[in-house]
């Protein structure tokens, strides 16, 4: 077992930096289905580029490397205590090497352990099997899509689709609703794992286990196979599209599992996974600890097709802005414009927004740009910081604070993903600011725009939550909420709710 730790390390690096071939094929297919030249199609091209960049840079596809969750099958009699120790060491090492973000945070104090180890993290499940080798599977599921998981207790009355009973048709309605409620916030197009039955805990566990199925497999249960096909065909009619920009492809995969339940309970649990569907596995020789095979076809076998330059779209304006930005420049922007940002950008997410409510900002934010982002950073030998992965985080979490902070500090642009709510929209209008949607998960693509790390404040919040001051060049994002009261997110949500309602009539009797 000399090489076991190194094998697990290799698995972590591969999972974080190289999407497997079945996931790549699903994304490739989505690109073929999406209308060319639309916002969703352009975003899918960026996603495809980002996948290639991550593989080439051996750096995280998305900065949120999620909750590392291992499922380990061992031969009878194998020493699981030693294996656990090696897995923890491999996790700490890959964090140190910036292959994983420092993602383990004390829930009460907010302190980041800095090595991804702590109570409950990582998650390791051991199971024995009657084979001589070891199998280690790993999923890195990010927090943003985890927040879009949902559990239904049937019977229920659901927005859009109405009554959902304790039968296959009720389950169908739950799944359609689950895709709708995620909107673009979990970085659609996504994959869903569904668990029918169990209790609240095992239902979710079953749902997550479905994510380990290969994208192209067929459910052995005929009813569930039909349900999966139905969802794959119809969820895309909701029109949510990539990142919630509207479009033809909203869902890339649907896998449903079933287990028994208690007479009183009927749970339908849905695990939503973003397009950055990072899961891989290895078979390991129990004697040497060396990898003998990969469980999922590796991504390197299927390069993502690169696009010819996108066709000119006369409807879409491209505006270059250098921070600090004036109110006049902002007022001239409208939903749909592409903005290219140069100059200084400041990261800020959950801890910073709460902090700024009753503290001064460490730097002048007048005319400034706030980026909802928790990057992966690495320090070189000379002590200089470098951005290793830096896509946007889900902005809606800052909704309680954002409007007040924009006005208090004179911020002109907020960049994030998934959109924000009515309070922020009103503040954008009142103060003269915009919300720009960046492409979630495109962490390598955006990291390249940060030419220099100027400085950092509030490091006591930990690397992802600190306020990084970044010299930026050519950061492209789309205006999805402008200073005239328009919100693409509100429009897509309303439109998709209307579409959801068309799935109200029974299908499985
Ligand atoms: O934590 C992050 O950086 C992103 C998160 O996964 C999100 O989708 O909001
Ligand atoms: S930012 Fe998007 S792609 Fe990255 S983990 Fe979160 S949901 Fe997934």
TrEMBL record:
The keyword Iron-sulfur applies. It holds the Pfam family Fumerase_C. One of its GO terms (molecular function) is metal ion binding. Its cofactor is [4Fe-4S] cluster. Catalyzes the reversible hydration of fumarate to (S)-malate. Keywords: 4Fe-4S, Iron, Iron-sulfur, Lyase, Metal-binding. It catalyses: (S)-malate = fumarate + H2O. Homodimer. It comes from the Bacteria. Residues 306-491 form the Fe-S hydro-lyase tartrate dehydratase beta-type catalytic domain. One of its GO terms (biological process) is generation of precursor metabolites and energy. Its EC number is 4.2.1.2. Residues 6-280 form the Fe-S hydro-lyase tartrate dehydratase alpha-type catalytic domain. InterPro entries: Fe-S_hydro-lyase_TtdA-typ_cat (IPR004646), Fe-S_hydro-lyase_TtdB-typ_cat (IPR004647), Fe-S_hydroAse_TtdB_cat_sf (IPR036660), Fe_dep_fumarate_hydratase (IPR011167). Belongs to the class-I fumarase family. It comes from Paenibacillus thalictri. This is Fumarate hydratase class I.
């Amino acid at each position: 077992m000399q090489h076991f730790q190194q094998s697990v390390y290799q698995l972590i690096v591969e999972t974080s930096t190289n999407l497997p071939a079945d996931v790549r094929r699903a994304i490739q297919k989505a690109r073929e289905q999406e209308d060319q030249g639309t916002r969703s199609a352009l975003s899918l091209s960026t996603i495809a580029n980002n996948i290639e960049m991550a593989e080439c840079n051996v750096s995280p596809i998305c900065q949120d490397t999620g909750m590392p969750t291992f499922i380990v099958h061992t031969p009878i009699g194998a020493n699981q205590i030693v294996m656990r120790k090696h897995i923890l060491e491999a996790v700490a090492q890959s964090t140190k090497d910036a292959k994983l973000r420092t993602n383990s945070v004390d829930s009460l104090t907010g302190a980041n352990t800095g090595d991804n180890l702590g109570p409950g993290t990582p998650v390791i499940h051991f199971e024995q099997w009657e084979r001589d080798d070891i199998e280690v599977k790993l999923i890195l599921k990010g927090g943003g899509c985890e927040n879009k998981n949902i559990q239904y207790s049937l019977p229920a009355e659901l927005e859009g689709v109405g009554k959902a009973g304790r039968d296959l048709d009720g389950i169908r309605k739950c799944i359609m609703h689950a895709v709708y409620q995620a909107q673009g916030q979990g970085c659609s197009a996504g994959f869903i794992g569904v668990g029918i039955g169990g209790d609240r805990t095992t239902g979710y566990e079953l749902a997550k286990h479905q994510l380990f199925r290969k994208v192209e497999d067929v459910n052995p249960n005929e009813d569930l196979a039909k349900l999966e096909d139905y969802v794959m065909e119809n969820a895309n009619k909701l029109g949510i599209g990539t990142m919630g920009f509207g479009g033809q492809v909203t869902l890339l995969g649907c896998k449903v599992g079933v287990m028994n339940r208690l007479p009183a309970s009927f749970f339908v649990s849905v695990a939503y996974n973003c397009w950055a569907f990072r899961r891989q596995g290895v078979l390991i020789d129990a004697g040497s600890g060396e990898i003998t095979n990969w469980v999922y076809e590796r991504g390197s076998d299927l390069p993502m097709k690169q696009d010819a330059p996108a066709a000119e779209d006369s409807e879409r304006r491209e505006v270059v802005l250098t921070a600090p930005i004036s109110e006049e420049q902002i007022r001239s922007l409208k939903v749909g414009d592409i903005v290219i940002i140069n100059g200084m950008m400041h990261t800020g997410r959950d801890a910073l927004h709460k902090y700024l409510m009753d503290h001064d900002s460490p730097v002048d934010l007048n005319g400034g740009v706030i980026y909802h982002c928790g990057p992966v950073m690495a320090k070189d030998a000379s002590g200089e910081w470098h951005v290793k992965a830096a896509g946007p985080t889900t902005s809606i979490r800052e909704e309680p604070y954002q409007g007040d902070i924009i006005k208090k500090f004179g911020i002109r642009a907020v960049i994030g993903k998934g959109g924000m709510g009515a309070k922020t929209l009103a503040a954008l209008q009142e103060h003269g600011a915009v919300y720009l949607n960046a492409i979630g998960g495109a962490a390598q693509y955006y990291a390249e725009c940060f030419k220099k790390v100027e400085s950092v404040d509030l490091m006591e919040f930990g690397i992802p939550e600190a306020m990084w001051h970044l010299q930026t060049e050519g950061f492209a994002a789309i205006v999805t909420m402008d200073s005239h009261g328009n919100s693409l997110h509100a429009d897509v949500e309303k439109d998709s709710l209307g579409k959801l309602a068309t799935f109200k009539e029974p299908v499985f009797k």
